[in-house]
Amino acid sequence: MTNIESFVSKCRIFTDATSLMDSAAQKIFLEDISKLNKNKIIIHNEVLVSLQEVIAQDSNKASQAKMALELIKEVEQQKKGERARGGKGKHLQDVLIFIFKEYGSKRKLCLITKDDGLAEKIMHLKDSNSAFQKNILILTIGKKGTLERYPNRKVTEKAINSKLLSEPFPKPGRLPFTRARIISNEENKRLEITIMPRTGSLIYLERENKGIRLGKEIASEKEGIIYETERENLVCKIFKNESRTSLKRSKLQLMTSRIFHERGICWPTSMVYNSYLEFVGFAMPKAKGVEIHKIIQQENSFTGNSLKWKRKDLIDISIDLMQKIKILHDEYNVFIGNISLGDILVTENRKTYLVDTDSYQVGNFPTSNRENINFLAPEILDENLDEILRTRNHERYTIAALLFMILMPGQTPYARQDEAFARHSIKNKEFPYPYKKDRGVRMPPGLPRYMWSHLHSLIREAFYQTFKNKTVKRLDAKDWVDLLGKYKWVIDNGSHSNEIFPTSFFEIDK
Questions:
Q1: Could you say which DSSP state residue 327 is in?
Q2: Which residue has the higher pLDDT, 144 or 17?
Q3: Is residue 441 very low, low, confident or very high in pLDDT (cuts 50, 70, 90)?
Q4: Nearest Cα residue to 455 out of 433, 440, 475
Q5: I want to staple 239 with a disulfide (CB 3.0 to 4.6 A). Which of 2, 224, 256, 475 is the partner?
Q6: Which helix (H) or strand (E) element contains residue 281?
Q7: What is the DSSP letter of 496?
Q8: Are 377 and 393 in contact (CB under 8 A)?
Q9: Beta carbons within 8 Å of 294's beta carbon, 6+ residues apart
Q10: Burial code of 195-225, b = ≥16 C-beta within 10 A, e = fewer?
């Protein structure tokens, strides 16, 4: 109690309706506070409005509200309290939050309340800024009728030791995850939390004994918000309410059980908890570059581009990507599933970063990234993707589609923008581009034809086998690395064009 007395003696004290309705309020507001603080208790006009609403709407508490109004009169008559007005908000809770937010960083403020909702919001305000931490105190009236610090369920050293520091360290080395055949049958429940971390909030990582602060917001996604942290190369994804589930937590516990130091693969490195040690997200390495779709989706992305990229640059990007995917497949048994071009970043030196990796398929947890039919193998096009695990052959189709869209900027394998037509073309393998005796069907006119003709014949064959051949002959990532290396070599020796958008045919296999 001593530290409370020291703080209260120098601060401005506010109260709300709930504390004035307590059975011990008479003693607290007429005796105890005046012994601790010579300042008058501040009673906002909205307190009276709230009490009158209780009288009108809640017969069980009407008598307590009437006694609280009488107490306010007595406090004012004894000159131990003063009225206040102003602030923003339609209700008392909003007004008090505004006052504490506006002035809490500049002067010492105390709130006496028995409203858990209001107290938690002020506690969250304290967590968001170190100045608020020093200047704001929340008190409640305990069961014995005395002033007590509001129950602080935030992290303690004991809690860190029992929950965070007890977590086993990740297994070292490139250890593969178990490849499952049946998806997890764990019930998927939404996880409720006390407070949602935001910029300035303290978060806690597994196996660490102190918190770190969230920095500015980098991006807002469907599932969550990405924040910088006070550590330069570490970012944090905080899940939105609907995406914070028990299944996601279990999946991340599995993902963070491995040491994963692969450059450019932004793998979850630690579970993240709020100041109440509730699961809220995960930490990962910070990515660099711009989203690849901003570069490859159309011709005018390249015109006037200061990078002055050529076809060899696209090949370098493709090789870098395939090398990363080879590691995921061969070393870890991890499958990407549906690729989003917004989740692949490219730097000026043609290095790639993979983000949104928590959506990848790991163990018996299926991929959860957004459906894009351009990356779906024909055999799973009509499947419920939440109920199946991807196979190696499904992935081979996906990476071939990705490479096609990089090497043929602005094009998809089946050249259909309408989803219904694209779905039909994929299921029936109506690949429009020619190869040897097959002259193609409904091939896009102009530029796509020229680009296709200039691809190395081994590249064209691999695409044709993937998107046309009924017997399904698809390549692994390591095979693509070899083919792309050969393609780069023939450009270097001058037998193939280095232009991304050639203006005439090269040759077509006969």
A1: I
A2: 17
A3: confident
A4: 433
A5: 224
A6: strand 279-285
A7: S
A8: yes
A9: 301
A10: bbbeebbbbbbbeeeebbbbbeeeeeeebbb
DSSP 386: G
The pLDDT of 40-46, averaged and rounded, is 91
Q: Tell me which residue has tokens 């709407």.
A: 57
Element (H, E) at 280: strand 279-285
**Cα(62)–Cα(83) distance, integer angstroms:** 22
Mean per-residue pLDDT for 188-202?
86
Q: Which residues contact 489 (CB under 8 A, 6 or more apart)?
A: none
Q: Which domains does the chain have, with CATH numbers?
A: 2-149 (3.40.50.1010), 157-285 (3.30.200), 290-492 (1.10.510.10)
Q: Is 299's pLDDT higher than 60? A: no
Q: Which two tokens stand for residue 425?
A: 């073309």
- Asked whether the beta carbons of 328 and 334 are under 8 A apart, the reply is yes
Cα(491)–Cα(88) distance, integer angstroms: 67
Please tell me the total number of residues recorded for the chain in this structure: 510
pTM of the full structure = 0.74
Structure tokens at 401: 């589609």
DSSP characters over 221-269: -SSEEEEEESSTTEEEEEEPGGG-BHHHHHHHHHHTTB----TTB----
